[in-house]
Amino acid sequence: MRATGPIVASEQLATQQLSTLRRFLQYLRPYRKEIPIALTLVLIGASTQAIGPFLLGWSIDHLIAKGNLPGLLLLLGLLALIYVLGISATRGQIVRVGWIMQRLLAQLRQDIFLKIQSLPLSFFDRSEAGDLMSRLLNDVNTVNQAFGQTVAQMLGNVFSLVGIVIAMLTINLQLGLLSNLVVPLMIFTTSLFSRWARARFRVTRQTIGDLSAKLEEDISSVREAQAFNRVQVNIQEFDILNAANRDANVEAVAITAAFLPSIDFLNTLATAGVLAFGGYLAVTGAATVGVVTSFLLYVQQFFRPIQILSQFYTQAQSAFAGLERIFLLLDEPAKLQDAPDAEEMPAIQGEVRFENVTFGYNPEQLVLKGVNLHASPGQMIALVGSTGSGKTTIINLILRFYDVSGGAVKIDNIDVRSVTQASLRRQIGIVLQDNILFSGTVAENIAFGAPYASQADIESAAQLANVHEFITSLPQGYATQLGERGAPLSQGQRQLISIARAVLINPRILILDEATSSIDTRTETLVQSAIARLLKNRTSFVIAHRLSTVTQADQVLVIQQGQIVEQGTHTELIEQQGVYANLYSLQLGANNS
């Protein structure tokens, strides 16, 4: 009964590996025409290796023993031609297989990147960017090392091994069977070590993912770490993850290091057996010296492919672990998909309705509870409430970053779930409190949502956003290169460029998340002026923390615990002397003090 667990685990491992390999091989389908050419070259290279020892042994018995020098010279010339042909075929196979594998791996990377781009935001809420980067870079690189660089050599060795076995059994059945006695031992040894290696390499792939996630997080937040004097703590946490990855790799290497000498020992054992038994057969006249010589050469060739295949098999365990992580990501359900009959969103007029909307990031905990709202085209809607009340969630549902749990979100009386996401978001602009700029030119950042916009349109958008003069003052103007996250621009300058980005796509619905916070008074004036132009004739939703910025809103929605508790204009809500009036009074008093 005790053996049942390991046996079942071994069967499950083999089944899982076979399934992973079968799925990986599906990437070979586009290269069906190239594969036969590569296999032909592999077969030619393997055949030339298998025929060499036979000819050398035959020359000893039939040419050297009889003093046939002309025949020997002719045979040596034939061997030279055979080996030149083999070398040429081997080179061709490596180039051809490498060409196929690198394109296969490029497609795998492309699939991972496309999957990451298409996953809903709910996936990223529970995933780390560094771990995703590790799958795209480290795991694919591990697959490349195992398959992309050695698969051609591995295929050649498989064919060589088959040819050698056939030649050995044909030349002398007794010596052939003796040489193959160690094969079951090799299979057992390889199976044993592969199970150990697979478990260890799984840990190495996981720990490198954790390490990458930690590294990405600490690099992106280095300023905060220094400001809060947390550098030493981050170093200690990184040391722990780094040590875990080191230990996992050391254990994996230790298994590999023990495996190869085991194969070498079996090689030596088989060589000694052939030498002893072959010598006996030669002395008794049951075999010629040439046959024994051929067998000794074959034994060396026989174990060389096995050693390489065994090494590849061990290395492949790391690749399988990486492929499992990759396929787990590729199998991640894209829950937020366009409906099969989804149509293009027509030109938006700007009417927005929430009809008894409920929603929760966690199904067991609702964030919005029966929300109803109506925004007429061109209205400015202010969302007011404490942190976590549901303001940002309302914005996310308008953009359809998430689907409602109940009810419906409609734009121009069209349920947003019935149209394609791209056509919906194409007509909605967004300016966040902390907008992200990207490495590239200023012009490329403004044209982020309209990459084919003309230079004239880009400059016109910048003028409307009050940032044209600043841009032209830069050393290279619109061609000035920005660093990661828009460095070295200030917060206000980044905000103005993000407004220009929204202006350029000419959205019918605009979303603002406290776009004037964290900037100086002079820049705030420019931002407010730019926003006023941007809001004109557009439906807008403004998340407001400073209530002084929403006094002109057509509607102010006060949200508490996922519900709209008050609704009206600024003046109407002040007169009600309710939650909004209390908040406004508190902020006004704080500002005056």
Describe this structure in words.
The chain crosses the membrane at residues 37-60, 72-94, 154-171, 177-197, 274-299. InterPro entries: AAA+_ATPase (IPR003593), ABC1_TM_dom (IPR011527), ABC1_TM_sf (IPR036640), ABC_transporter-like_ATP-bd (IPR003439), ABC_transporter-like_CS (IPR017871), P-loop_NTPase (IPR027417), Type_1_exporter (IPR039421). Keywords: ATP-binding, Cell membrane, Membrane, Nucleotide-binding, Transmembrane, Transmembrane helix, Transport. Pfam families: ABC_membrane (PF00664), ABC_tran (PF00005). Residues 37-318 form the ABC transmembrane type-1 domain. The chain has 593 residues and is α/β, with parallel strands linked by helices. It has two domains: 28-330, ABC transporter transmembrane region fold (Up-down Bundle), CATH 1.20.1560; 352-592, Rossmann fold. 64% of the residues lie in helices and 10% in strands. It has 20 helices and twelve strands. It has helices at residues 4-25, 34-64, 69-118, 121-125, 129-148, 151-171, 173-179, 183-220, 222-227, 231-284, 289-330, 391-398, 421-425, 442-446, 455-464, 468-472, 491-505, 521-535, 570-576, 579-592, and strands at 352-359, 368-375, 380-384, 406-411, 414-415, 428-431, 440-441, 481-482, 509-513, 539-543, 555-560, 563-568. The strands form three sheets. Strands 6-9-10-3-11-12 form a six-stranded mixed sheet. A four-stranded antiparallel sheet has the order 2-1-4-5, with helices on one face. A two-stranded antiparallel sheet has the order 7-8. A hairpin with a 2-residue loop joins strand 4 and strand 5 (414-415). Helix 5 (129-148) packs antiparallel against helix 11 (289-330). The longest helix is centred in the middle third of the chain and has 54 residues, at 231-284. It is elongated, with a radius of gyration of 35 Å. Mean pLDDT is 80; it is low at 1-8.
